Every structure is written in structure tokens, then in C-alpha cells.
Amino acid sequence: MSRDIFVQDIPASVRSVDEIPEDWMPSPLAFTAAAVIDSAKVHSAGVDDSDPSWIRITEQGLDIELSLADETPLMSFAIHDRSSDRPASDRFIAGILADLGARAFDPEGSDSGIFEASDSSPH
Fold first, then answer.
1. Sheet harboring 62-68: ordered strands across?
2. Rounded CA separation 117/115 (Å)
3. Which of 28, 44, 50, 38 is nearest to 85 (CA)?
4. Cα 76 → chain centroid
5. How confident is the model at residue 36 (pLDDT cuts 50, 70, 90)?
């Protein structure tokens, strides 16, 4: 499995990418890249943050990379998931998003195009 998930300031009322207005422009995220790294460390012991723009998470079943821009304010970040354990990766991603109060686009893993932990069926 391989999928790319994109964290942006998605309006809370939106349940599907089809509901996003054509003139929508995302606002800056309400957290920093450092907060993303801190959250990853809470949810996995296998975090390598030696390069703060490319965080690697590897532990049993998880193979995830977080691509973080060196920008303030942070506008978005990407989650590259090549995990062999989809439910474990969904739990990890959902944990980070919950910690940060964020939402993400999941075009390859969700029927709505927006990440939901319940989208953990194998693909």
C-alpha cells in the first residue's frame, strides 16, 4: 500500500472534497512543524527527526514520512504512508490529526477524499 495524505485547513463543515467551494483558499494551520514532530513522538517510538523537514516513522507495520516545509506560518504538510499495516497507520495518522485539531485530504484511501480513521479497510 502507498498513499499520500495532505494536511490543510479544511473547513470543519466539509464532509467530502465535492463540498469544497471553488473559491476556497486554505488558511495557515494553527500549529507549527515542531508541534507535528512532537505529536509524532507521542504516537510512535520509531520517529527519526534528524532532518526536521523529512520525519521518518518506522516501527513494526509502520513506514511513514512526514514532509514539513520550513515555513511560518505552516500552510500544509504531507504524510507519505507506505505501511504494511493499514489499521496501525490509520491510528497513527488519526492520533496526530486529533492532537493538532487538523484535517487532511486522503485522495487514494477515502471515498470522500478526506481522511477518516474509519477508512481503514484494506486497499
1. 47-48, 54-59, 62-68, 77-81, 3-8, 103-105
2. 7
3. 44
4. 9
5. very high
Query: Which residue in 90, 49, 91 sits closest to 66, CA to CA?
Result: 49
Residue type (1 letter), 31: F
Name the one residue in this structure whose C-alpha cell is 500544509.
76
* pLDDT 10s digits, 81-91: 999 999 999 99
pTM value is 0.91
- Tens-digit pLDDT profile for residues 48-64: 999 999 999 999 899 99
Q: Where are the beta strands (DSSP E) in 27-76?
A: 47-48, 54-59, 62-68
Q: Which of 86, 78, 91, 96 is nearest to 117 (CA)?
A: 91
Give phi and psi for 58, each to the nearest 5: -135, 125
Element (H, E) at 5: strand 3-8
